């Protein structure tokens, strides 16, 4: 009895597979149905969502670097600079508008992240100033899913900006020397 049931199940499964394959052949060259179009749109959205994740990873690494500078931690800033450099290199700019502009921004930001990974803390802060400008420009192209705050210190090198996830000012340019020097310049959504 078990053998008969297995045979029937096997024949049924084989029949379903043959019908499925033959139905696929009939669809070749046919117009795309609304459901298929929606599935293709979902794939495209998934790809851009993947790039959003990579852009958010860049921001996450940037914030870790900022926090290391706030804490006056040269060693952690070096590690964070290296991680940020790797994140910047992994961003695929093909899915964004303004590809040439974004390419220039990423290349410049990567150069500064690399310098940070090899420098003393004063030199790291010099590169962080330009890196911050690059990341602010990157966010203008890629957008962000979280609220960011562009903060500004009027005293460091004629005035310097940086990004933060918190409204509370924690100055990466002076660290513990002048921890709260600065103000929120604007909110980025």
TrEMBL record:
DUF3347 domain boundaries: 58-145
This protein's name: DUF3347 domain-containing protein
Protein's organism: marine sediment metagenome
């Amino acid at each position: 009895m078990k053998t008969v049931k297995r045979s029937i199940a096997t024949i049924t499964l084989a029949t379903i597979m043959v019908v499925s394959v033959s139905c696929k052949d009939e669809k070749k060259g046919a117009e795309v149905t609304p459901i298929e179009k929606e599935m293709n749109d979902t794939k495209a959205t998934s790809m851009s969502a993947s790039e959003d994740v990579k852009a958010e990873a860049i921001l996450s690494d940037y914030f870790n670097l900022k926090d290391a500078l706030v804490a006056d931690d040269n060693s952690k800033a070096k590690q964070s600079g290296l991680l940020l450099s790797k994140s910047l290199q992994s961003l695929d700019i093909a899915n964004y508008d303004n590809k040439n502009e974004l390419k220039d921004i990423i290349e410049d930001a990567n150069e500064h992240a690399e310098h940070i990974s090899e420098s003393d803390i004063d030199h790291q802060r010099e590169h962080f100033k330009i890196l911050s400008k690059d990341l602010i420009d990157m966010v203008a192209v890629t957008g962000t899913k979280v609220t960011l705050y562009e903060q500004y210190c009027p005293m460091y090198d004629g005035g310097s900006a940086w990004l933060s996830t918190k409204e509370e000012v924690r100055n990466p340019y002076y660290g513990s020397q002048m921890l709260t020097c600065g103000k929120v310049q604007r909110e980025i959504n």
